[in-house]
Design brief:
The complex is a heterodimer of chains A (146) and B (189). By secondary structure, chain A is mainly β. Helices cover 3% and strands 45% of the residues of chain A. Chain B is mostly beta strands and 189 residues long. The longest helix of chain B has 21 residues, at 168-188. The chains are: A mainly beta (146), B mainly beta (189). Chain B: InterPro entries: PRC-brl_dom, PRC_barrel-like_sf.
């Protein structure tokens, strides 16, 4: 699934059947490249974060969570945690580990069951998830292809 | 393909960890007058109003030098302070290669150093210098073989004078020809 297709989907609480928020962005972690968390837009100010491990199922129309109490204010998340908003790749530059810029991340193609990232997409190419070394405040760093 | 760049082009480039975080940008290069290579970078914070960081990045801690960023493994690649950037007492010339005369071993003055040419990649090295000739032309001079550097002059092999390039595009060929020539010379002995 492409992340742009997941954006805006409702997150529902399985205990109350209520919508607790909508998906706004994703954060990724490397080795293996995977979705680490989802940033949610909820009622009220600021974003909230749902860690991927707390996602019960990622359905075609909505995302189910067992306990809404698992959704945390992103201010309380440590930047080292893969779910911290600094690890959102979309809109960031792709740099190879040799310091060459390869475009801007426009989308993330991932497996909605495992959360594994298949490709990072830029306007020019698809970069396999295996090549991802990390996403930080400045760029998504990938291994050099040669 | 080997990518060459002028050392002055490295300034303003972001310093990025393999985790994708930017630690700052390159403010200045500090040359090592005893080897003619680059000893370290001084850094500035990112952004319009950011000042100097007062943390040096040693050349040997650079993971890779690329056309768009200077890559380091993580934040521990930076020194805790910038003492590495201060000229040491052994170097009365102030620890800079720029402005120093460049001469062949047989005593011909080729010009003064205006910039260094760096081979980018995972083991970046100073591959040559940009010099201003006595005729006030700027040319790129590859260096290979024995190079001796003092605060007064950079001494290069005699053959170096015949291999120069007008721009970075031609520098690779000039550097390669010089390497082959020096190899042939040493085999001839």
């Amino acid at each position: 699934m492409l992340f742009t297709k997941a954006r805006g989907k409702a997150v529902m609480d399985l205990a109350t059947a209520e919508t607790v928020g909508t998906v706004a962005a994703c954060t990724v972690a490397p080795s293996p490249a995977r979705i680490a968390g989802l940033r949610l837009r909820t009622r009220g100010r600021g974003h909230r974060t749902l860690e991927w491990s707390d996602v019960q199922s990622f359905g075609p129309d909505a995302i189910a969570v067992e306990e809404a109490s698992r959704i945390r204010d992103e201010k309380n998340i440590d930047p080292g945690n893969g779910a911290h908003p600094v690890h959102d790749p979309v809109g960031k530059a792709v740099l190879t580990e040799t310091g060459l810029m390869k475009g801007i991340v426009t989308d993330v193609e991932f497996d909605e069951r495992s959360g594994r990232i298949r490709h990072l997409l830029t306007d020019e190419e698809q970069i396999p998830g295996d090549e991802l070394l990390g996403v930080g405040s400045y760029a998504a760093v990938v291994t050099a292809s040669q | 393909m080997t990518v060459y760049m002028r050392a002055s082009e490295i300034t303003k480039k972001p310093v990025v960890t393999l985790a994708g975080d930017d630690l700052g940008q390159v403010k200045d290069l500090v040359f090592d007058a005893s080897t003619g290579s680059i000893r370290c970078f001084t850094l500035a914070g990112r952004g319009l109003l950011a000042g100097p960081l007062h943390r040096a990045l040693l050349w040997r801690n650079v993971h890779a030098l690329g056309p768009d960023a200077v890559m380091v493994r993580d934040e521990s690649a930076l020194e805790e302070d910038d003492t590495a950037a201060q000229p040491s007492a052994k170097e009365p010339a102030g620890g800079n290669v720029l402005g120093v005369a460049i001469m062949t071993r047989s005593g011909a003055r080729l010009g003064t150093v205006t910039d260094a040419v760096v081979e980018a990649g995972k083991t970046p090295v100073v591959a040559g210098y940009e010099i201003e000739t006595p005729e006030h032309r700027r040319v790129l001079l590859p260096v290979a073989g024995p190079v001796t550097v003092s605060g007064e002059r950079v001494l290069v092999a005699d053959a170096t004078a015949q291999y120069r390039a007008g721009d970075l595009g031609g520098f690779g060929t000039a550097a390669e020809s010089l390497r082959i020539r020096l190899k042939e010379d040493s085999q001839g002995d």
